[in-house]
Amino acid sequence: MLPQMTIERAKRPLAAARITAAARRLLDASTLCAIATVSNDGGVHINTAYFAWSRTFDVVWLSDPHAHHSRNLRANDRVAIAVYDSSQTWGGPDRGIQLFGSAHEVGQRAARHAEHIYANRFSEYGEADLGSYRFYCFRPRRVKLFDEPVLGAGVFVTARVRNDGGVTWERTEIYRERSE
Question: Which domain holds residue 47?
Answer without folding.
Answer: 5-177
